[in-house]
């Protein structure tokens, strides 16, 4: 998994934050990363390897996954200059998402691609496995494509 190090960093930082987590936990985590020299160095290394947009998007995703929440709207970050905005995690993920198996995730990806093929850059095809991985983690198909498209462009 390309983002395993991002996941490890986010979970390590999250474990140091007081519970219960607020709906602004993504901002809290990135704020903590920014203030801690070791975490910041690991974050920068990941940005050099994957790109800042990928690390930030996946970082937010892994935090949300760890706390079992999802969010519908973005707000500007107040605690970290590492991210411009983040999702407010105000909904229990169990009520929203179900994680498809590999075959179903591939079907979802293919169906969405066919329906939106004219809007997709050709290089999206290079990221099939990443899309399947996101779908199997429970991310909605449109959101998965959007995340990958942001990272590609």
Unreliable segments (pLDDT under 50, ≥5 consecutive)? none
N to C succession of SSEs: HHHHEEEEHHH
**Span of the ends, CA to CA:** 21 Å
- What's the arrangement of strands in the largest beta sheet? 1-4
Q: What does the radius of gyration come to?
A: 15 Å
What proportion of the residues is helical, as a percent range? 55-70%
Describe this entry's structure for a reader.
The chain is mostly helical. The chain folds into 2 domains: 4-94, no CATH class; 102-152. It contains 7 helices and 4 strands, in the order H-H-H-H-E-E-E-E-H-H-H. It has helices at 4-16, 25-35, 37-50, 52-67, 102-116, 128-136, 141-152; strands at 69-70, 74-76, 85-87, 91-92. Strands 1-4 form a two-stranded antiparallel ribbon. A hairpin with an 8-residue loop joins strand 2 (74-76) and strand 3. Helix 1 runs antiparallel to helix 3 (37-50), helix 2 (25-35) packs across helix 3 (37-50) and helix 2 (25-35) packs across helix 4 (52-67). The model has no long low-confidence stretch (mean pLDDT 88).
């Amino acid at each position: 998994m390309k983002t395993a190090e991002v996941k490890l960093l986010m979970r390590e930082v999250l474990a140091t934050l007081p519970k219960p987590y607020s709906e602004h936990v993504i901002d809290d985590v990135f704020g903590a990363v920014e203030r801690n020299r070791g975490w910041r160095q690991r974050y920068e290394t990941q940005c050099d390897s994957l790109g800042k947009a990928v690390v930030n998007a996946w970082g937010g995703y892994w935090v949300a996954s760890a706390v079992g929440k999802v969010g519908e709207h973005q707000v500007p970050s107040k605690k970290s200059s590492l991210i411009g905005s983040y999702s407010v995690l105000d909904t229990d993920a169990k009520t929203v998402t179900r994680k498809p198996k590999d075959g179903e995730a591939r079907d979802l990806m293919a169906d969405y691609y066919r329906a939106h093929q004219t809007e997709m850059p050709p290089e999206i095809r290079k990221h099939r496995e990443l899309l399947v991985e996101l779908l199997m983690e429970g991310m909605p198909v449109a959101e998965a494509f959007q995340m990958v498209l942001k990272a590609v462009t």
